[in-house]
Design brief:
The complex is a heterodimer of chains A (115) and B (112).
Chain A: E1 4-7, E2 10-13, E3 19-25, E4 31-37, E5 43-50, E6 53-57, E7 64-70, E8 73-78, E9 87-94, E10 105-106, E11 110-114
Chain B: E1 4-6, E2 11-14, E3 19-25, E4 32-38, E5 45-51, E6 54-58, E7 61-66, E8 71-76, E9 85-92, E10 101-102, E11 106-111
Parallel strand pairs in B: 2-11
Antiparallel strand pairs in B: 1-3, 3-8, 4-5, 4-9, 6-7, 7-8, 9-10, 9-11
The chains are: A mainly beta (115), B mainly beta (112).
């Protein structure tokens, strides 16, 4: 059973296109996240939702729009893709009520390449 | 200056060696300190955690936190080729436990 899954795993697209990445978790967690990991492995938080409500919104271009249809899903839509958007995007989830509320479970990542 | 600084490596050591990985940080509000391990082409997974200062041991792994110096370490004893991965330090403050700040990761390679 996959705890946090993302689709697609790889995404190659041209500049200017619009694309979406989907994330689903079956852990029953209330909080979900999107991270961007650049080529130097720096992992930076972009957004966080708690039970479908946006709680963290870092300095991210407004071309990026997260959507949480329910607490098990968090999707990321990117408009007008740019070369600098090329990175690996990770979805994660956590349970704020757990013994370790800061333990986050990560998906396998979506490798986005913009040409 | 980044909130969390970590030497990116790469670090290559022979099998059986003791490995020391370190991070420094600037935000004195951080109370939760973690180490995540990330294998190639995979998502990070939590390896060790400590709350506030002190040491914690789990098998071959020991995590240390020195809040007075704003310095955290991860030691790996009897390193194995399967320990080859990128290790990311991470930390958060009690007021925002959901928001974790990650270091840039140290790539570690254990030579058989």
């Amino acid at each position: 059973d996959t705890a946090v899954s993302q689709t697609p795993k790889y995404l190659v697209t041209q500049m200017g296109n619009d694309k979406s990445i989907k994330c689903e978790q079956n852990l029953g967690h209330d909080t979900m996240y999107w991270y961007k990991q650049d080529s130097k492995k720096f992992l930076k938080i972009m957004f966080s939702y708690n039970n479908k409500e946006l709680i963290i919104n870092e300095t991210v271009p407004n071309r990026f729009s997260p959507k949480s249809p329910d607490k098990a899903h968090l999707n990321l839509h990117i408009n007008s893709l740019e070369l600098g958007d090329s990175a690996v995007y990770f979805c994660a989830s956590s349970d704020p009520g757990a013994v370790l509320p800061y333990e986050q479970y990560f998906g396998p990542g979506t490798r986005l390449t913009v040409t | 200056q980044k909130e969390v600084e970590q030497d990116p490596g790469p670090l290559s050591v022979p099998e059986g060696a003791i490995v020391s990985l370190n991070c420094t940080y600037s935000n004195s509000a951080f109370q939760y300190f973690m180490w995540y391990r990330q294998y190639s082409r995979k998502g990070p997974e939590l390896l060790m955690y400590t709350y506030s200062s002190g040491n914690k041991e789990d098998g071959r792994f020991t995590a240390q936190v020195d809040k007075s110096s704003k310095y955290i370490s991860l030691f790996i004893r009897d390193s194995q080729p399967s320990d080859s991965a990128t290790y990311l330090c991470a930390m958060s403050a009690p007021s925002s436990a959901s928001k974790i700040i990650f270091g840039s990761g140290t790539r570690l390679s254990i030579r058989p």
